[in-house]
Amino acid sequence: MGNAVSQCFGGNHSPPVKLIFWEGTTRILRGKHIAGEIMFEFPDKMVCHSDSFFIGHRVPALAIDDELQSGQTYLVLPIDTFACDHVISASSLAALGSSPKNSPINFGDCRRPFEYVKGADGRVLIKVVPEFITRLITRARQNCRSTMNSLLGRLRNKYGHLSLKPLQSTRILGSHLADL
């Protein structure tokens, strides 16, 4: 006869997994998932934990049977651009943020793009901050979108006069037919 409260409904809601694709799109996953599910759906891509990028180290690709941890962010990158044996450098980060616009990457955009952390062996490592990588990827997509909008605007200005007024041509034709 105690005053115990029991849960009637499952309150076991874990935070979702966030996937950020190289193209800049984002997908939210709920429940348990393994990296192989994503790799099967996108065979030309690899899955990397966003918190595991270190300058001078290999790209941290997950194995097929690695479980995606709830509340974590993962990057889905093209295998041909970022092979598993590829070492992360400033130039590979530039490729990560590449866009049709050849604008340089401003490493000062992020409050701190890099952090110095101590590795398991006591050596200092240069960690690439996950927010910086995310910003690089989404920046490429935004630059692409703004370039496309700019191009469409210029095309409208240059060729807009070529569009016919639909009612005007119908009225002219109709008046000639009425005379017959």
Provide a descriptive summary of the structure in words.
This protein is of the alpha+beta class and 180 residues long. It has one domain (17-151). 32% of the residues lie in helices and 17% in strands. It contains 4 helices and 6 strands, in the order ββαββαββαα. The strands form 2 sheets. Strands 2-1-4-3 form a 4-stranded mixed sheet, with helices on both faces. A two-stranded antiparallel sheet has the order 5-6. The protein is globular and about 35 Å long. It holds the Pfam family PADRE.
Write the layout of secondary structure elements.
Elements: E1 17-21, E2 26-29, H1 35-41, E3 45-49, E4 73-78, H2 90-96, E5 114-118, E6 124-128, H3 130-159, H4 166-178
Parallel strand pairs: 1-4
Antiparallel strand pairs: 1-2, 3-4, 5-6
